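Practice problem: predict the structure.
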Amino acid sequence: MTTITIPKKNTKEKELVAISQEEYEKFAQWQKTIRPQRILKTFKPTPAQLRTLKRSREDYKRDKYITIDELKRRLDIKG
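Answer:
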């Protein structure tokens, strides 16, 4: 595969790489096959969840929380 690198000083922005159309088409096809696997869903909290998170952080700052071990002890969970 023949590639040509065009330096940043000639493009005034980013270093570019030129490849043959055939190689580009192979790459584009490969991208189509892996893209669905790489899509990540992002979590967007609701306003109510944001309020709860804010309240929880405030409680944490005021030491108004219990540890997992304390919760297990209060619920009488062994292990």
